[in-house]
TrEMBL record, chains A, B:
SUPFAM superfamilies: P-loop containing nucleoside triphosphate hydrolases
InterPro entries, alphabetized: P-loop_NTPase, Polyphosphate_phosphotransfera, PPK2-rel_1, PPK2-related
UniProt protein name: Polyphosphate:nucleotide phosphotransferase, PPK2 family
Origin species: Nocardioides szechwanensis
Keywords annotated in UniProt: Kinase, Transferase
Molecular function via GO: polyphosphate kinase activity
């Protein structure tokens, strides 16, 4: 028995955004506990992998379709966890992951979308952006890395870019992983507690916490300005890792199923090929 | 209780190669049946994912190390299956897969290694080549896509290239998926039987079977000429899919463990950072 769609529950409605009104520890559309949630995620795996394979197969017919999953969120919100536990459920051949770091000099010398356009998924693939062009209106706004006029310009540029992307056959699934400042503190402390996680810790992450409110403001503005009909935002409560992974798996599954990729029909005569194989005389 | 290393069992010894003397349906270093083999593969998963994560972490210290898994084999030998079931065991963030198709015009206008060098794994990653520069001495030899002199040159060029790669910190793990002509016929027939697999079938694959013996010759020459100390070949019996997946998982695990990546040591004062977090006064 499959769950009803989670998409309507986490899709951001149009209009002004107040992140503080969205619970970070909710478990949208799921009544069970962590154990049940993990079991549900595992149960979705084969269905997700199946529909992904059909999308992957479809490209051999010349179809340009693909899906781009955009993951945004504060440090420790779990972009890496989603990659590992949700995206990891499908065949890695069909996945193209791009992690965006601080732009290089070359990248800074170009329009902010230049590096983004070079990293789009190929036909048939699920592309995943671990951070994205949204950093250019988030950290860029908080730390004034660009002029106010340039940042203002970017919202529109993003909408135009995403609309083109959708028109060319890419489903754009945007997820903001929503955690609380308290949960982030817990996660940073637990990274400090475990020497196997020290490599994930950056003292700069603590400095950034001083800008927590400014980041939430920047997110609210960005979400509102870029929450378009063709590429809407989803706010995924992420204080509970299992619920975050499950919600995104469900979203991904729902969007892929809505694309309804089908197995390509053979462009050869199946019986003829079977006969060729059965009648061949092979020298080995 | 872990199994003894499989590497010595499938590593190709130096000297002339006779593929017909290597059983395609063997299950090297494993006594159990399919069910036991699949359980063993699942059991290796967490260990493999753990050592992969340490390699991935290591790159943050500036280490250039990476691992390149080269998958070669006749059509249907299971390169895709290895990607899905073996490579799929590790975090997709740390994996970079490149499938090489027939070269484009631009690629043909360059040296055959040009496109290869552009697809090498980044530090900390496992790169996987689904087909590789070896096609340039395999299909190229069978179908005379290059002059005899050029193909002759390529063996040396490959050895020089791989030696450089190893010297720069990339472990090169080369696997030839070894199937019989009979098994290939079965697999092609089963693709015809299943409409969900028609997209994987190409009538050209049947034509290619007429060149089976020529391909085996080309493989034997390529394996012998490029079976170097620093980048040796492994011949992986692949008539049994489960054994193929398990053997490559074991090889990958053994090579990664031999690299012995360790968790990076914190370059900050852990107590100081903990105190900063615990004492902060945060405005949210």
């Amino acid at each position: 028995m499959s769950l009803p769609p989670v998409e309507p529950l986490v899709r951001l409605p149009p209009g002004p955004v107040d992140l503080s009104s969205i619970q970070t520890d909710a478990t949208p559309g799921f009544e069970g506990d962590k154990e049940a949630g993990e079991a549900e995620l595992a149960a979705i795996g084969p269905e997700l992998a199946g529909v992904q394979e059909r999308l992957f197969a479809e490209r051999t017919t010349g179809s340009p379709r693909s899906l781009l999953l955009v993951l945004q969120g504060m440090d420790t919100s779990g972009k890496g966890g989603v990659l590992r536990y949700t995206v990891g459920l499908v065949d890695p051949q069909g996945v193209q992951i791009k992690a965006f770091k601080a732009p290089t000099k070359t990248e800074l010398s170009r329009d902010f979308l230049w590096r983004i356009k070079r990293a789009l998924p190929e036909p048939g693939h699920i592309g995943v952006f671990d951070r994205s062009h949204y950093e250019d209106v988030l950290i860029a706004r908080v730390h004034q890395l660009a002029s106010a006029a340039e940042i203002e310009r970017r919202y529109g540029a993003i909408n135009d870019f995403e609309a083109e992307l959708v028109a060319s056959g890419t489903v754009v699934l945007k997820c903001m992983l929503h955690i609380s400042a308290v949960e982030q503190k817990e996660r940073l402390l637990s990274r400090l507690d475990d020497p196997a996680k020290h490599w994930k810790f950056n003292p700069g992450d603590v400095d950034e916490r001083a800008h927590w409110a400014a980041y939430q403001d920047a997110y609210e503005i960005a979400l509102e300005r870029t929450n378009t009909e063709v590429a809407p935002w989803h706010v995924v409560p992420s204080d509970r890792k299992w619920s975050r992974n499950l919600t995104i798996a469900r979203l991904l599954n729902e969007r892929l199923k809505a694309m309804a990729p089908v197995w390509p029909v053979a462009d050869f005569d199946v019986e003829e090929q079977r006969a060729r194989l059965l009648n061949e005389v092979l020298q080995t």
